[in-house]
Every structure is written in structure tokens, then in C-alpha cells.
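Project outcomes to date are best conveyed with an example. Our students and postdoctoral researchers have been running inverse folding experiments weekly, and each run begins with a structure described purely in C-alpha cells. The record below, which covers 156 residues, was selected by the lab manager from last quarter's runs and is presented without edits.
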């Protein structure tokens, strides 16, 4: 199936919000996505398969560091390498914006995301205890993951 990647523009807020509903445990509103896209350093990409949005990444680069704010692939397109390609594309964009480190938080029990990030060269640099609060059941720790690259290093 032909696929392509497009940079997220402010006009994509509703499309990204709809994808958060399909991909994440908690959906983000159009307004929330629009507000993020309006902040300095924010950028993102949408992966399209046969012109249908199937995966997305939202990031923010500032002060030499880039944070992954959200990443998701719609369930029917998972394990097709979409998220890996989006992460690598985001690292290249972060590098172009003078970031030398990418960081993110992932729920300790999110095995799929942890494996994805490990495959993409991230390692654990911290833990936030009880970071994810749930209406029922115990809170879940977030692991802080990081991938660094030097100025001389060519990001693949
Ligand atoms: C995590 C998520 C983004 C992965 O998206 P994806 O497009 O399926 O990931 P990819 O196909 O690029 O997978 C790349 C690698 O990650 C790992 N991986 C991805 N999903 C996995 C799973 N369910 N189980 C184990 N490993 C997995 C594998 O190593 C995989 O490589 P392989 O298929 O060659 O073995 C997707 O499962 C998702 O949207 N989950 C819900 C939202 C979420 O957790 N976002 C991340 C929050 S930090």
C-alpha cells in the first residue's frame, strides 16, 4: 500500500484530534491539539496510507531538546513500521531545529511503545512515580526515555 508522510499544519488540528481518539487511551480535543501546534517549536507528522491518515507524531523542540508529546498508529495499521518511521522523521526534524536530544514519557506497562523506542535507540533516564493517574486502580509510573546524538553525528 503506498504511504507518505506530511508535516502537520495548524489546519490539521481536527485530523490529529480524530487520530488521538482512535489511537490513545484519552482523546485530545481539536482545541487542545490546535493550542499545542500554536506553541513555539511544535511540529509533527502524519503518515498516510492510500491518502488515509494512519499514524501521527507531535513534538516540541526547545533549548536543544525535543519532547515527543504524542504518538499513535490506528489499530488496523499497527506493526507496519509506521511509528518507527515517524520517530526517525521526527529525530531528523529535531536535529534540523538544533536539538541534540529527544525525550518522552511512556507508561511502564506500555510494552509496545517501550519496545518501539528501544528499537529506535532510546534508553531509560528516569522514572516518574504515579505519573499516570487513573479513575480506578493504582497510578502508573512513567519511564523517562531519551535518545541523544552529537552535533557531528549524522542522524539517519
Ligand atoms: C506504540 C505504537 C505507536 C506502535 O505503533 P506501530 O506503528 O505499530 O509501531 P511499528 O510498526 O513502527 O513498530 C516498530 C517496532 O516497535 C515494536 N513494537 C511495536 N508494537 C509492538 C507490540 N504490540 N508488541 C511488541 N513490540 C512492538 C517492535 O519492535 C516493532 O518492530 P517489528 O514490528 O519489526 O518487530 C502503537 O502500538 C500505538 O499507537 N499504541 C497506542 C498509543 C501509544 O502507546 N503511544 C505511545 C505513547 S508513548
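After processing, the design step wrote out the following sequence:
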Amino acid at each position: 500500500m503506498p504511504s507518505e508522510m506530511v508535516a502537520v499544519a495548524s489546519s490539521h488540528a481536527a485530523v490529529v484530534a480524530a487520530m488521538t481518539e482512535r489511537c490513545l487511551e484519552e482523546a485530545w480535543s481539536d482545541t487542545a491539539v490546535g493550542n499545542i501546534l500554536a506553541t513555539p517549536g511544535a511540529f509533527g507528522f502524519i503518515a498516510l496510507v492510500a491518502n488515509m491518515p494512519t499514524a501521527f507524531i507531535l513534538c516540541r523542540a526547545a533549548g536543544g531538546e525535543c519532547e515527543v508529546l504524542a504518538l499513535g498508529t490506528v489499530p488496523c495499521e499497527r506493526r507496519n513500521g509506521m511509528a518507527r518511521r515517524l520517530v526517525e522523521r521526527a529525530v531528523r526534524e529535531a536535529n534540523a531545529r538544533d536539538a541534540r536530544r529527544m525525550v518522552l514519557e511512556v507508561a511502564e506497562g506500555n510494552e509496545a511503545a517501550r519496545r518501539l523506542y528501544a528499537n529506535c535507540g532510546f534508553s531509560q533516564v528516569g522514572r516518574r512515580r504515579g505519573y499516570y493517574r487513573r479513575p480506578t486502580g493504582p497510578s502508573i509510573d512513567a519511564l523517562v526515555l531519551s535518545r541523544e546524538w552529537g552535533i557531528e553525528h549524522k542522524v539517519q
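DSSP finds four helices and seven strands in the chain. Residues 3-148 form a domain with the Aminopeptidase fold (CATH 3.40.630.30). The training component of this project remains on track.
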